[in-house]
From TrEMBL:
UniProt KW keywords: Mitochondrion, NADP, Oxidoreductase, Peroxisome
Compartments in which it is found: Mitochondrion; Peroxisome
One annotated GO molecular function: oxidoreductase activity
Cellular component GO terms, alphabetical: mitochondrion; peroxisome
Protein family membership: Belongs to the short-chain dehydrogenases/reductases (SDR) family.
Domain SCP2: 311-400
Principal subcellular localization: mitochondrion
InterPro entries found in the cross-reference section: HSDL2, NAD(P)-bd_dom_sf, SCP2_sterol-bd_dom, SCP2_sterol-bd_dom_sf, SDR_fam
Protein name: Hydroxysteroid dehydrogenase-like protein 2
PANTHER family found in the cross-reference section: HYDROXYSTEROID DEHYDROGENASE-LIKE PROTEIN 2
Gene3D superfamilies xref list: NAD(P)-binding Rossmann-like Domain (3.40.50.720), SCP2 sterol-binding domain (3.30.1050.10)
Length: 407
């Protein structure tokens, strides 16, 4: 269906962008790989040239272009080169994205600028550069990899800048779909679950892939959208929902570890999280209560087990101090010191300054430390708020997996 069509895909050297490119290449499409990785990256796989080789091996034609979407002239140059090489542009996929899951005070200005420049401004400028050519196509599409706009405050409170930047991409869909209705289809696509990419590995650490699906699910969903008529526009599509409507029944084929529980993606409310709006207020109350009496109950029991399980090896391999602000029964301020000699855990503030502060309900804390709630899932669903060193938080998750048998 996409034979002879020209797709301009940002961030197509790896991950989701490359998966969409390879799916289209099987039809014999022309792919413009608009990405900034020309030289091999020290930690991330793939360049625009290795992606080009894979695309041509799959049956497509590839045009690798060095494009940092923060630089308008690089976008314009790549668009002109694409039109000169392939005669036009039929489809634009705005996939390039930057992420920093940090709170307002922890987000450096350069990170704010990066997310706004890549996610919002980059999407807007690439669309602007491609639109004059898209309008000449028989069945033109713009597809943004961005979420439905969910105004639940939980999606803003932990990473306000990132959320604003992704919703900016979605607002481009909202506005441009209406502005170019009848001329160019403009839609958004978002995964129902976490997708296994290099970015997810960095965010979630070792073992996270078992909770993810392959990029293939987004490639298949994108293909469904891009082969629909241009009257299909202004939609915020969830990959699994669309594919079920298209008749797909077996979703195990998309799982990295079939049968393993999957992590829901950002911005999607699986169900209303009871008490999520009140937790902040409860937490504040807990902090002002008298700490004279040593608490008892599941939280205190959990810390007693942790205290008994901590070894010098844990201290040597972690080198971090963790403070917990827990709301609800048995809550208050607790700590795990995996930096001082011997290590320790207990009630109150840590003996030295905390590297990481984690805020959550005491019930979710107990679930997390007994293996019933994955820390990454707790964080992504808004149940766990983390301030400080994210790399240390991931180290703690690894230690938890070792301690689960004792807890």
């Amino acid at each position: 269906k996409l034979a002879g069509c020209t797709l301009f895909i940002t961030g197509a050297s790896r991950g989701i962008g490359k998966a969409i490119a390879l799916k289209a290449a099987k039809d014999g499409a022309n792919i413009v790989i608009a990405a900034k990785t020309a030289e091999p990256h020290p930690t991330l796989p793939g360049t625009i040239y290795t992606a080009a080789e894979e695309i041509e091996a799959a049956g497509g034609k590839a045009l690798p272009c060095v494009v940092n979407v923060r630089e308008e002239q690089q976008i314009i140059n790549a668009v002109e080169k694409a039109v000169k090489t392939f005669g036009g542009i039929d489809i634009l996929v705005n996939n390039a994205s930057a992420i920093s899951l940090t709170g307002t005070l922890e987000t450096a200005t350069k990170k704010v600028n990066l997310m706004m420049d890549v996610n919002v401004r980059g999407t807007y400028l690439t669309s602007k550069a491609c639109l004059p050519h898209l309008r000449k196509s028989k069945n033109p599409h713009i597809l943004n990899l961005s979420p439905p706009m969910n105004m639940n405050p939980m999606w803003f409170k932990n990473h306000c800048a990132y959320t604003i930047s992704k919703y900016g991409m979605s607002m481009c869909v909202l506005g441009m779909a209406e502005e170019f209705r009848g001329e160019v289809a403009v839609n958004a696509l978002w995964p129902k679950t976490a997708i296994h990419t290099a970015a997810m590995d960095m965010l979630g650490g070792a073992g996270i892939e078992k909770q993810c699906r392959k990029t293939d699910i987004l490639a298949d969903a994108a293909y469904c959208i891009l082969t629909k008529p241009k009257t299909f526009t202004g939609n915020f599509i969830i990959d699994e929902v669309l594919l079920r409507e298209e008749g797909v029944k077996d979703f195990d084929v998309y799982a990295i570890a079939p049968g393993h529980p999957l992590m829901p993606d950002f911005f999607l409310d699986e169900k209303k999280l009871s008490g999520s709006q009140q937790e902040g207020a409860d937490g504040a109350k807990v902090k002002t209560e008298s700490a004279a009496a040593q608490p008892s109950g599941p939280v205190a029991d959990t810390f007693r087990v942790i205290q008994g399980a901590v070894t010098e090896e844990h201290v040597r391999s972690t080198q971090g101090v963790f403070q917990f602000e827990l709301s609800g029964d048995g809550g208050g301020t607790w700590y795990i010191d995996l930096k001082s000699k011997g290590g320790s855990a207990g009630f109150g503030k840590p003996p030295v300054a905390a590297d990481v502060v984690m805020s959550m309900s005491s019930a979710d804390f107990v679930k997390m430390f007994t293996g019933k709630l994955k820390p990454t899932l707790a964080f992504m669903s808004g149940k766990l708020r983390i301030k400080g060193n994210m790399a240390l938080a991931i180290k703690l998750e690894k230690m938890l997996s070792q301690l689960n048998s004792k807890l």
